[in-house]
Structures are given as structure tokens and as C-alpha cells.
Amino acid sequence: MFRLIKYLLILAVLGAIGLFGYSYLLEPEEAPVTETIEIDAG
């Protein structure tokens, strides 16, 4: 029983870190695109 809870807890933590890392990796890609659009428009 405790092994199952420990396994699910580890999966939840890794999943949260994975989602955070994934969104963090997506942000730097989108940010320069909007900046270049602003520079080109200006």
C-alpha cells in the first residue's frame, strides 16, 4: 500500500516538474517572436 502511494507521489511530482519544464521551454521560443514583430512594426 505504501509502495503504491510512494509510486503515485513520485509520478505526480515528476509530472508537475515535466509540465513546468515544458511550459518553461515553450516561453522563450514565443517571446523573441513577439519582440521581433514589435521591432518590425516599429
TrEMBL record:
Chain segments annotated as transmembrane: 7-25
Alphabetical UniProt keywords: Membrane, Transmembrane, Transmembrane helix
Protein name listed in UniProt: Uncharacterized protein
Organism of origin: Jannaschia seohaensis
